[in-house]
Design brief:
The chain is mainly β. Helix content is 8%, strand content 40%. The protein folds into 3 domains: 200 residues, Immunoglobulin-like; 136 residues, Cupredoxins -  blue copper proteins (Immunoglobulin-like), CATH 2.60.40; 125 residues, Cupredoxins -  blue copper proteins (Immunoglobulin-like). The protein has 5 helices and 35 strands. The chain binds copper (II) ion.
């Protein structure tokens, strides 16, 4: 680790931050969740009693309207019994907490009929989706209480695991924390031709991981508790506390989604068995990559395949991990914590699963020479990017349609940050000047940015020019995003001038 004078100054500042955090880090992962917490040499160790079957979000029903596949999502408040007899006020889509899994095939035109039955303005962003900016569901597409919004677009990207969540200006963290989130699976012919587990809810399982802090009455505790945001001491997987899942096949595919607002995870199995990483944010990898850990910061996804023996039980765990942070900062932002996540229980006899293919899909590398423009993004202190906080009426970057760009991102701050770009899936060209590791070699839309480590991304802008409606780029630690670590870019046709933006958030 390189220690600059600047780092040391930051560290000095962070010790002041760390003191009030001691309470947030105290183990009470069992008070409500039924597990036991304890402090080891490093962070908290949260053990869980796996006594509830894992909920599988239902596949959203759809209808065909004028040749388009139409889905309906209603955002509303409700109450959820995470433990029998204890109810928690929550928000959800089409239910009290989380939302159904949307699923569509590449080439299909979809319509998402969203209705807001909350008593405040929200929006629904299709994270990782390539679509027109006006359909993106960011802060410029607010849905007022009682109103509806029906974006439509053609699915045109490789098979992968995306998700959806609110993106209202300054309120994304709170809305997502209350439970507004769901998975969006994209299918295509290439993926369908591979021998992979793909029976939803049988051997192809969504694993939506969120950390929560409950108070003594079972309510969600909201609010900033660490420099990263609220860090929970209890995990929900698909909204289930203490979840187990009965596996009936030799191999099971897990679609891991870190839907937490602030916490990062390093997933692996308690017995350290190896598994195959087959896909990342934007699609399958070119070949399965065998490993025993996969780190996911907020909003990142990974598809993994793990093998099981008849009758055995294994625990998916989040291990302490190194986010490249200085001493105390790693600890107060949760990097030293250990969480048991999900128990997989194999039945006494298992249906045969085909061996994993040696090759998956082509992931042609985008050549650096293809890029015409290079932009620099410095993630800086006080929730700024290149010295600026997000402003709804300011366009920060203007991108020309039909071009390829390199975006150089560096976290100049001492805190953990990530970088998410709307509209496109990018490739990581380099991390600190070196080739990206295998888990960053595929399509990505969100990448962790360790302090002082330059990351170079390459991306193609292929369509959907609109000078008047911007896409966002931002840190996906939602507290940071909400406090301003976000910027806006428009895609224009060559020679076209960007339009004027309005601040829709004014007057609310
Ligand atoms: Cu951040």
């Amino acid at each position: 680790m390189r220690l600059s004078r600047r780092d040391l100054l930051r560290l000095a500042g962070s010790t002041a931050l760390a003191l009030p955090l001691a309470t947030a880090c105290e183990p009470n992962g069992g008070a409500f969740g039924g597990g036991r917490g304890g402090t080891g040499s490093g962070g908290n160790r949260v053990e869980v009693t796996f006594d509830q079957p894992l909920a599988i979000p239902p596949l959203a029903e759809s209808t065909i309207q004028a040749g388009k596949r139409a889905f309906a999502l209603v955002a509303k408040a409700g109450r959820t019994e995470f433990r029998p007899g204890r109810t928690t006020d929550t928000w959800g889509f089409n239910g009290s907490h989380l939302g159904p899994t949307l699923r569509a095939r590449r080439g299909e035109q979809v319509v998402l009929n969203v209705r807001n039955e909350l008593d405040e303005t929200t929006s629904v962003h299709w994270h990782g989706m390539h679509l027109p900016a006006s359909a993106d569901g960011g802060p410029h597409q607010p849905v007022e209480p009682g109103q509806s919004w029906s974006p439509s677009w053609r699915i045109d990207q490789p098979a992968t695991t995306l998700w959806y969540h609110p993106h209202p200006h300054g309120e994304t963290g709170r809305h997502a924390y209350r439970g507004l989130a769901g998975m969006f699976i994209v299918d295509d012919e290439e993926e369908a031709a591979l021998d992979l587990p793909r029976e939803y809810g049988i051997d192809d399982i969504p694993v939506i991981v969120q950390d929560k802090l409950f108070d003594g009455d079972g309510r969600f505790v909201e609010g900033e508790r660490s420099p990263s945001g609220t860090l929970g001491d209890t995990l929900l997987v698909n909204g289930t506390l203490g979840p187990y899942y009965e596996v009936s096949t030799e191999r099971v595919r897990l679609r891991l989604l870190n839907a937490s607002t602030a916490r990062s995870y390093s997933f692996g199995f308690a017995d350290d068995r190896r598994f195959a990483l087959i896909g990342t944010d934007g699609g399958l990898l070119s070949a399965p990559y065998e490993t025993n850990r996969i780190q996911l910061t907020p909003a990142e996804r990974a598809e993994i395949v793990v093998s099981m023996k008849p009758g055995e039980r294994i625990v998916l765990r989040s291990f302490p991990h190194d986010l490249g942070l200085l001493f105390g900062i790693g600890r107060v932002t949760g990097g030293e914590d250990t969480f048991d996540v999900l128990e997989l229980r194999a039945t006494s006899s298992l249906s045969a699963s085909p061996a994993l293919p040696a090759r998956l899909v082509d992931v042609p590398r985008i050549a650096e020479s293809e890029a015409g423009t290079t932009r620099a993004f410095a993630l800086e202190s006080d929730h700024t990017i290149n010295g600026e906080r997000m402003r709804m009426d300011r366009i920060d970057e203007v991108v020309t349609n039909g071009t390829t760009e390199i975006w150089e991102v560096v976290n100049e701050d001492g805190l953990p940050h990530s970088f998410h770009v709307h509209d496109v899936q990018f490739q990581v060209l380099s991390v600190d000047g070196a080739e990206p590791p295998p888990e960053l070699a595929g399509w990505k839309d969100t990448v962790y940015a360790p302090p002082q480590v330059p990351i170079r991304l390459i991306m193609r802008f292929t369509d959907y020019a609109d000078p008047n409606v911007p896409y966002m780029y931002h840190c996906h630690l939602l507290l940071h995003e909400d406090q301003g670590m976000m910027g806006q870019f428009v895609v224009v046709e060559r020679g076209q001038r960007p339009g004027e933006l309005q601040d829709h958030s004014r007057g609310h």
